[in-house]
Write a structure and sequence with these properties.
107 residues, single chain, globular, mainly beta
Length: 107
């Protein structure tokens, strides 16, 4: 299979096929979600649980989130500093790209 597709839907609605790479970009923790007509609500640990479940099924899966929210059973792939705006206050935060460690248990 060749190519790439992206979707702006609830992560549970995306059909997956063998060999797919999954990138989960949930709203930041402490945020309010994506708004508009999106079904994607504020961040919860469900995103990390879903990543664990997909990894156990053999998918390569990555989650972006603030580095201070990384679960212990996830490895850091990359980190970078971002300007984060919340309630008109701008702060610098460290964001990371994480992947479940081999053997991470779905909770």
């Amino acid at each position: 299979k060749c190519g790439m597709s992206s979707s702006f839907v609830d992560y549970m609605e995306v059909p997956l096929e063998e060999g797919d790479v999954v990138y989960l970009d949930p709203p930041y923790s402490g945020g309010v979600g994506y708004g508009g007509t999106s079904k994607v609500s504020a961040f919860t640990s469900d995103y990390f649980d879903y990543a664990r479940k997909l990894a156990q099924r053999g998918f390569a899966v990555y989650v972006s989130e603030f580095t201070d929210n990384k679960p212990d059973d996830f490895a850091t792939v990359a980190t970078f500093e971002i300007q984060h705006l919340k309630d008109t206050v701008s702060t610098r935060r460290s964001e990371g790209l994480f992947t479940p460690l081999r053997g991470s248990a779905y909770k």
